[in-house]
Amino acid sequence: MEFHSTNKARTAFETATSRLTYDRQWAILIGALLILDALVVYGSLSLAYIVRISSGLLAYSSTHDPVAYRWFTVASIPVWLAIFALLGLYRRDNLLGGLHEYQQALGACTSGIIVIIMVTFFWRDEVQISRGWLLLAWGLSCFLLVAERFLARRAAYLLRRRGWLTARVLIAGATDQGCAIARQWLRNPTSGMAVVGFVDDFKPVGAPVADGLQVLGRPSALDTLVRQTGAHEVVVVSNAVAWETFEEIIARATARNGYTVRLSPGYYETLATGVVVTNKTFVPLFTVDQARLVGVDTLLKRLLDYGLSVPLTLLAAPFLALMALGLRLSRPGPVLDRYAAVGQGGAVFTMYKFCDSVAWAADGESLSSPPPPFPPREEPVPSLRSGQALSLSKEGPGGSGSWLERFLARSGLDKLPQLFNVLAGQMSIVGPRPRVLGAAGDEPRTAANFQTVRPGIIGPWVVSAAWASGDEAQDELYYVRNWTIWLDLQILIQTILSLVASALHPPARRRA
């Protein structure tokens, strides 16, 4: 009895220490953000004064009182920090993830400038403030605050790889949905969510679930399991637990029990889009997004697509014309193949590609009679997988096709006409592999996830060696669910490096 009491006391002490350490780490981060934000406010307002008035870089002949500007700069610091706090810039749930933090930062800087404008309006007889200074202060504060939060996030991610700022999580519901959520967090060390186990109504205690995790107990013993594991959060998969259990957990969620209860909509494995929580007369509702990228994410994706496709199309126009002429002279038949591809939302569009009879010949087809470009549904055709086309062109029987076709297929330049699909808004530079209408492959649930974004000319399958998984479909699903503009840039850079490496070290030709 004394032994068990000692163990319980030790467990309770370790749990309390773990929670205290976790809270202290967040307090340190938020304290550091407060100091950095104060420096940003002071620096942006001071720099705006230097550039607009005192430096002489911009013509300014009006009379001004340096003391008034100094007073506004110093007094703005606590006011702006209070605005930042009111707008949620120091809430844990708003930090270290997504673009929402940056949007809040822009709104907070705008609110701070509005406060200064209101103050100068009421005291306009005593002090005159330069409108140019206000404009520069707003632009500099927005830029510097976003840059500061971006760098702070990178530093926090490094700390999370060492175990800091990471919540211990119990998942209620050991179903496929719960396992998918656990794998998502385990695969991403910067998620800040460390799953310690599951609670479940139906599987036996101790049953293995996913990646070494087990069922630790029943949801009825949730409070005890939280104390034993030191969990900070409980994630409830709403459709994976009995209704009585769900009601019980929700009833306890408002109590001061030392952990946070979060609800998963229960469709993570089914659909890759997000949800927005809305309140209709104080009734909370989940609104399912129809597309994976919405709002600012859509804008950033469009900027990347058009920012690259427009100059690339202009630069590649002479090359496209030469390749088309070369294909026309080297053999009879069309220059471009047209495929009925499935795009975002299931919309069917015409995808272009230089004729690639090499790949068809590798499948045993005759070069003189390639498969129809718009196949009927009952006659599936090979989907356009870049890696597959590359290997077929290298290892096809006898290297069939003209040297130009082999070059285009080997280099991947046969997909250059798809730049026009990007310009038409049907494809993206980076995205999941295009799916040909009627082609065999993805199951309906997986296909629905791919159709939440535009297919890409390049994607995870091009740089599969750089990804943790060897499963192409899972890599593409991971891309869809975890999309950020930085992930697109990462894939672009890895693709360029791969192309450079292939050009410098071409693979040796296989002897017949």
Task: Write a structural description.
By secondary structure, the chain is of the alpha/beta class. It has three domains: 2-161, no CATH class; 167-270, NAD(P)-binding Rossmann-like Domain (Rossmann fold), CATH 3.40.50; 296-504, no CATH class. Helix content is 51%, strand content 13%. It has helices spanning 2-54, 66-86, 100-122, 131-161, 176-187, 222-229, 243-253, 296-330, 357-362, 386-395, 403-411, 418-423, 444-450, 472-481, 485-504, and strands at 167-172, 193-199, 208-210, 213-217, 233-237, 260-264, 275-280, 283-288, 336-342, 348-354, 428-430, 435-436, 456-458. Strand 1, helix 5 (176-187) and strand 2 (193-199) form a beta-alpha-beta unit. Helix 1 (2-54) runs antiparallel to helix 2 (66-86), helix 2 crosses helix 3 and helix 3 packs antiparallel against helix 4 (131-161). It starts with a helix and ends in an 8-residue tail after the last helix. The model is unreliable at 1-7 and 358-399 (pLDDT under 50).
